[in-house]
Write a sequence for this structure.
Protein backbone atom coordinates (compact mmCIF):
# COMPACT_ATOMS: atom_id res chain seq x y z
CA UNK A 1 0.00 0.00 0.00
CA UNK A 2 1.19 3.48 -0.76
CA UNK A 3 0.39 6.94 0.59
CA UNK A 4 -1.29 9.18 -1.98
CA UNK A 5 -3.00 12.56 -1.95
CA UNK A 6 -6.40 13.50 -3.31
CA UNK A 7 -7.16 17.12 -4.19
CA UNK A 8 -10.71 18.05 -5.11
CA UNK A 9 -11.21 20.42 -8.02
CA UNK A 10 -14.31 22.61 -7.79
CA UNK A 11 -15.73 24.11 -10.97
CA UNK A 12 -15.78 27.89 -10.62
CA UNK A 13 -19.15 29.58 -10.91
CA UNK A 14 -19.62 32.05 -13.74
CA UNK A 15 -16.47 31.10 -15.67
CA UNK A 16 -16.42 30.22 -19.34
CA UNK A 17 -15.67 26.61 -20.36
CA UNK A 18 -12.36 27.79 -21.85
CA UNK A 19 -11.17 28.83 -18.38
CA UNK A 20 -11.70 25.30 -17.07
CA UNK A 21 -9.83 23.87 -20.08
CA UNK A 22 -6.88 26.23 -19.45
CA UNK A 23 -6.63 25.11 -15.83
CA UNK A 24 -6.73 21.44 -16.86
CA UNK A 25 -3.99 22.13 -19.42
CA UNK A 26 -1.80 23.85 -16.78
CA UNK A 27 -2.29 20.92 -14.43
CA UNK A 28 -1.30 18.50 -17.20
CA UNK A 29 1.87 20.52 -17.90
CA UNK A 30 2.95 20.92 -14.26
CA UNK A 31 1.58 18.05 -12.18
CA UNK A 32 1.92 14.29 -12.50
CA UNK A 33 -1.68 13.25 -11.88
CA UNK A 34 -1.62 9.52 -11.08
CA UNK A 35 -5.37 8.94 -11.16
CA UNK A 36 -8.71 10.68 -10.77
CA UNK A 37 -12.21 10.02 -9.56
CA UNK A 38 -14.59 12.60 -10.96
CA UNK A 39 -13.36 15.95 -9.68
CA UNK A 40 -10.84 14.36 -7.29
CA UNK A 41 -7.30 14.42 -8.70
CA UNK A 42 -4.91 11.90 -7.15
CA UNK A 43 -1.16 12.47 -6.96
CA UNK A 44 1.70 10.43 -5.53
CA UNK A 45 3.97 12.89 -3.78
CA UNK A 46 3.96 15.96 -1.59
CA UNK A 47 5.56 18.06 -4.37
CA UNK A 48 2.73 17.28 -6.80
CA UNK A 49 0.15 17.88 -4.05
CA UNK A 50 1.60 21.33 -3.35
CA UNK A 51 1.83 22.26 -7.04
CA UNK A 52 -1.76 21.12 -7.65
CA UNK A 53 -2.90 23.05 -4.58
CA UNK A 54 -1.17 26.21 -5.88
CA UNK A 55 -2.68 25.93 -9.37
CA UNK A 56 -6.19 25.29 -8.07
CA UNK A 57 -5.94 28.05 -5.45
CA UNK A 58 -4.84 30.56 -8.10
CA UNK A 59 -7.84 29.56 -10.25
CA UNK A 60 -10.20 29.63 -7.22
CA UNK A 61 -10.98 25.95 -7.83
CA UNK A 62 -9.43 24.30 -4.76
CA UNK A 63 -11.74 21.99 -2.87
CA UNK A 64 -11.01 19.52 -0.08
CA UNK A 65 -7.74 17.62 0.25
CA UNK A 66 -7.44 14.03 1.42
CA UNK A 67 -4.64 11.76 2.51
CA UNK A 68 -5.23 8.39 0.86
CA UNK A 69 -3.88 4.85 0.83
CA UNK A 70 -3.55 3.15 -2.56
CA UNK A 71 -4.23 -0.53 -1.97
CA UNK A 72 -2.84 -3.54 -3.81
CA UNK A 73 -5.28 -5.26 -6.19
CA UNK A 74 -5.61 -8.39 -4.01
CA UNK A 75 -7.01 -6.46 -1.03
CA UNK A 76 -10.33 -7.70 0.35
CA UNK A 77 -12.59 -4.90 1.62
CA UNK A 78 -15.98 -5.03 3.33
CA UNK A 79 -18.17 -1.96 2.66
CA UNK A 80 -15.64 0.05 0.65
CA UNK A 81 -18.03 3.02 0.38
CA UNK A 82 -17.70 3.62 4.12
CA UNK A 83 -13.91 4.05 4.06
CA UNK A 84 -12.80 4.68 0.50
CA UNK A 85 -13.57 4.35 -3.20
CA UNK A 86 -12.56 2.75 -6.47
CA UNK A 87 -11.27 5.25 -9.05
CA UNK A 88 -12.11 5.52 -12.73
CA UNK A 89 -8.88 3.61 -13.44
CA UNK A 90 -9.95 0.76 -11.15
CA UNK A 91 -7.55 1.50 -8.28
CA UNK A 92 -8.82 1.13 -4.71
CA UNK A 93 -8.15 3.95 -2.25
CA UNK A 94 -8.91 4.37 1.43
CA UNK A 95 -9.19 7.66 3.30
CA UNK A 96 -6.17 7.56 5.62
CA UNK A 97 -8.06 9.06 8.58
CA UNK A 98 -10.75 6.34 8.41
CA UNK A 99 -8.55 3.26 8.75
CA UNK A 100 -5.77 1.75 10.86
CA UNK A 101 -3.70 -1.29 9.90
CA UNK A 102 -2.30 -4.10 12.00
CA UNK A 103 -0.85 -7.55 11.60
CA UNK A 104 -0.48 -10.41 14.03
CA UNK A 105 3.03 -10.81 15.39
CA UNK A 106 3.80 -14.33 14.15
CA UNK A 107 6.47 -14.76 16.84
CA UNK A 108 4.08 -14.14 19.76
CA UNK A 109 1.67 -16.79 21.00
CA UNK A 110 0.75 -20.14 19.52
CA UNK A 111 -1.23 -20.78 16.35
CA UNK A 112 -4.42 -21.72 18.18
CA UNK A 113 -4.42 -18.50 20.25
CA UNK A 114 -3.72 -16.42 17.15
CA UNK A 115 -6.59 -18.10 15.32
CA UNK A 116 -8.99 -17.59 18.25
CA UNK A 117 -8.00 -13.93 18.67
CA UNK A 118 -8.41 -13.28 14.96
CA UNK A 119 -11.86 -14.90 15.01
CA UNK A 120 -12.92 -12.45 17.74
CA UNK A 121 -11.26 -9.51 15.95
CA UNK A 122 -13.18 -10.27 12.74
CA UNK A 123 -16.19 -8.45 14.16
CA UNK A 124 -14.29 -5.16 13.73
CA UNK A 125 -12.08 -5.95 10.72
CA UNK A 126 -12.98 -3.99 7.59
CA UNK A 127 -10.60 -5.72 5.20
CA UNK A 128 -7.45 -7.75 4.66
CA UNK A 129 -4.32 -7.22 2.62
CA UNK A 130 -2.48 -10.47 1.93
CA UNK A 131 1.15 -9.96 2.95
CA UNK A 132 4.26 -11.81 4.10
CA UNK A 133 5.04 -12.79 6.83
CA UNK A 134 1.54 -11.88 8.09
CA UNK A 135 -1.58 -10.39 6.50
CA UNK A 136 -2.48 -6.76 7.25
CA UNK A 137 -5.95 -6.12 8.66
CA UNK A 138 -7.90 -2.88 8.35
CA UNK A 139 -10.05 -1.48 11.13
CA UNK A 140 -11.69 1.76 12.15
CA UNK A 141 -9.03 3.66 14.15
CA UNK A 142 -11.51 3.97 17.03
CA UNK A 143 -11.19 0.20 17.59
CA UNK A 144 -7.42 0.08 18.16
CA UNK A 145 -7.74 -0.39 21.92
CA UNK A 146 -10.28 -3.17 21.41
CA UNK A 147 -7.84 -5.01 19.12
CA UNK A 148 -5.02 -4.53 21.66
CA UNK A 149 -7.29 -5.87 24.43
CA UNK A 150 -8.24 -8.97 22.45
CA UNK A 151 -4.55 -9.60 21.71
CA UNK A 152 -3.70 -9.34 25.42
CA UNK A 153 -6.55 -11.68 26.35
CA UNK A 154 -5.14 -14.37 24.04
CA UNK A 155 -1.49 -13.72 24.94
CA UNK A 156 -0.59 -12.69 21.42
CA UNK A 157 0.72 -9.45 19.99
CA UNK A 158 -0.31 -7.15 17.14
CA UNK A 159 1.94 -4.85 15.13
CA UNK A 160 0.45 -1.51 14.08
CA UNK A 161 1.39 -0.10 10.66
CA UNK A 162 1.52 3.64 10.12
CA UNK A 163 3.73 4.09 7.08
CA UNK A 164 4.09 2.95 3.47
CA UNK A 165 4.43 -0.82 3.24
Amino acid sequence: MKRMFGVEMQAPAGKLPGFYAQVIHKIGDNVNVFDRDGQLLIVEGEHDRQKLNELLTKASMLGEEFSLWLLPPDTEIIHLDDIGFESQEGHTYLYADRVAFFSLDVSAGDDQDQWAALEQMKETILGRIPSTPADLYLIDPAHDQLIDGIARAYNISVLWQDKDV
Observations:
- The two ends are 6 Å apart (CA to CA).
- The domain at 99-161 is CATH 3.30.70.790 (Alpha-Beta Plaits).
- Helices lie at 17-30, 46-58, 80-83, 111-121, 144-153.
